[in-house]
Structure formats: C-alpha cells, structure tokens
Amino acid sequence: MGVALNVETERGRCLQFAHKPSSAGSSSPITTSSPGFDLSFAPSTLSSFGDLIASDAGLDERSRNDVFQFSKMLEGRDGLKMGLVAIYVSLVSTQQQTRALTAKVDTLTEKMEAVTAAAAVEAAQWTKSQRNIILAATKTTVWDCKRLDFGNTGLFLDTVGYLKRQKETGANVQKYKFLDTHLDPPSAALKGYGRPAVSTSKTALRTLIGETLNECLTDTLVKLATKLTGDGENVKVIHAIKLIIMRRLARKNPRLVIDPSLKKKRVEPDTGFDEDRNARLDSDSFLDKITAEYKEKTAEFGNDLQAPAWSSFIAECVQEEKERFPQDKITIIPVVSTPATPARPVVPMPRRLSPGPSTPTTHSAGMFMPPPMQRANIFAGQSVMPRIQPAQVGRGLAGILNDSTQNNLGRYGDNYSLRSAHFSSPQYPSSSPGGIS
C-alpha cells in the first residue's frame, strides 16, 4: 500500500512524494515541486533517507553520521522512545558545553575588567593638563584639513601618530614625556582615555557646526579653529572648502546637528537630502554623512579638485553662503572672473620650484591660481606668503586631502589671518583681463 508524505520546508514549500516499501536499499522515483532538497529517489529505509537529506542540507561528515545513527535507531521496535532520550541527551550535552563556555567568558571578562581598572588608575595619575594634551591632540586630528574619514579607529591611530611627532620635536620633549611608555604601542591607559577623547572631539565638531549655522562662514572658521586647536588666527583654504560643504549638508539635515540632548530621539524626516526616518542623532551619523558626500562627489566629479565640475560645485556653495550672509566676502576663497569664464573660486597653489622666475598663472580649469607674491594688506595688514612644500607640486587638492601617508597635520595649504578683515573686499591686482572679484 502506498504511503503519501508531505514535508514542509523552511520556505513554506511542500515536498510531495510517494513510494512503496521495498527491500533494504531499494528506492522508488518521487515527484517534487520544490527547488529545496534534490531528491531523485526516496530510499526505502529511514536511515538512508536521513543520510540523503543530511547530504543535501550540506552537513559535514560528523553531522551526517549523527543523523544516520539517529535515523537507524528510530527503525527499531522502541525507536521513538530511544530517539526522545537521544534528543534529551543532546540538549543536556549542549547545556554542559554552554556552562563551560560561560565560565571561560566570565574569566576573560574579569581579566579585561582588571586591565581596564589598572589602565584607569594609570590614566588617573595623569594631571589635568596632561589629559588636556591628549584631548587637544584628538581635536587637532579631527580638524585636520586632509581628514575625509571620521572613523574612531582611524582618528585614534592618527592622534597617536600626531603625539609621536610632537614628542619628537625638541621643544616638546618635556611636555610629552609622560607619554614615554604609552605611544609605541598604544598603552591600555592611552586607549582608555584616548578613544573617548576622540568621540568627544567629534561631538564638539558636530555641535559647533550646528551652533554656527546662523553665523557667517568666516566667523565660523575662526570659531572652530579656536575651539578645536586653540589658534583661530590661521585657517587654510582647504578648511574653508571642507567647512562650506559641511554647512551645506548640515542645513539639508538639521536633525543630525541639533542639540546633543535630543540624540537618538525619532523625528520626522527633513525634505531634502536625507530620507532616513530613523537616522541616529549623533556625531557618527553626521560625520558618516560627510564622508559619504565626499565619496559621492568624488565619484561624480573625479579625484582632481582642480576640475571644472568641482570648481562649479564650490562656487555654488560660496554663492549660497554669500546670499545668506551678504556682509561676508569670504575672502579666503578668492574668485576669478574673465570674459571667457564665469566667476569661480580659486585656491592658492605654491610657486613652481623649477629654476627661473615664478609668475602667477591660472589653471585652465579656473579653480586654482597662485596668489601674487607681493600681495599685501589683503587680510590683516600683512603680506601673505605661502609655505611651499615639494610634495605639493604637481598634486591636486584631492591628492593632498587623500594622502594617507602624510600625517603631518597642518602641513599643506596657505595660512590666512581672518579676524580683522573679512567684511572688506580684498584689493587684488588686475592680473587677468577681467580682474579678480
């Protein structure tokens, strides 16, 4: 007499097959409507059937043998009872292994807590000024003009690298002496204090950007540089470009830079760039969005920030800022205008280092142009002389920003004093047919 079997698979499909009992080892054709187990024949014995589906399920040899033995046992007179006992033994065995693993985890946890406590005691022995040195280093790393990725691990390692370089400077040997045994490799104490300091610095950047959206770009540059590095007098052009992009993105996603006390509360989405209703309201969300924006623009415009597409995008950002704050001339990002090309931002590049006279030139894209070397009394009544580094020659801004091998913070770009002259237009010499406005 035939036997009809219905086996419900995990996907809700049904395997239907029928076979007649036959001698051991023989099998009969089956019909299946499911792409699950590939059963061409249904074995006549339970153990053979168990081995077949175990094989189709991808079990290893040991697991297949367990299934085979269990199926074989069920074929006996008291097979069902024996099978229940076997299942119970398997569960008890799993519980025993779990208890042993839990004990190991508890031991490991105790050791980690002991190490953490020892690191906390060691870090607690640092004075407030010493802890502030580490915090200042993390803020400087976050403010680095080349910084495009704000991951915690990368920021911490770059902070360690910055501290190493500062410690090697002759004038700073004594100042950083307390870190003699903490930098190479990073000690538990440094990790225990440095990683939270990184998060604090990221939060400070995000909060400052949110708090200054109603202030002009130039004032914001000074404020951020002062708060994060303690030096608001010198700000690089690249800082201005990065900040202007950050402010643009923050205005499209205000919930990512709102007051920290409102973190992780769900709010209705803004009409704009961000459509994620459940975005986390913390510094990681905003800075991750910044990183994604850079990657998106790089994919669209290319790596060379001297390209016309980048120039037009930055010009658009500058124009938006000027429309919001007409009194701010944003002199740190000069604009060149010629009869052949519309007004677009230009970023100072270094003089060429090859022999011969150095004369100002304009890149064909119109974005980057070296400033006249005799230009004086433009920003704060002092001549502005760019610091020239050989590594800059022949490299676009993207190469400078994405250079992961150069960790000297503050090495690239021209410095400008902004405090006293950002409301007056700079007086450029007319070095091009249309002049510079």
Radius of gyration: 34 Å
Q: What fraction of the residues are assigned to beta strands by DSSP?
A: 5-15%
Q: What's the average pLDDT?
A: 66
Approximate shape: elongated
Structural class, please? mainly alpha
How is this fold's topology laid out?
Blueprint: E1 3-8, E2 14-19, E3 27-29, E4 41-43, H1 46-56, H2 61-74, H3 79-124, H4 128-143, H5 152-168, H6 188-211, H7 217-229, E5 234-236, H8 237-252, H9 283-301, H10 308-324, E6 335-336, E7 344-345, H11 397-401, E8 415-417
Antiparallel strand pairs: 1-2, 3-4, 5-8, 6-7
Describe this structure in words.
45% of the residues lie in helices and 6% in strands. It is built from 11 helices and 8 strands. The chain has 2 domains: 3-75, no CATH class; 128-417, no CATH class. The strands form 4 sheets. A two-stranded antiparallel ribbon has the order 1-2. It is mainly alpha-helical and 437 residues long. The protein is elongated and about 95 Å long. Helix 3 (79-124) packs across helix 6 (188-211) and helix 6 (188-211) runs antiparallel to helix 7.
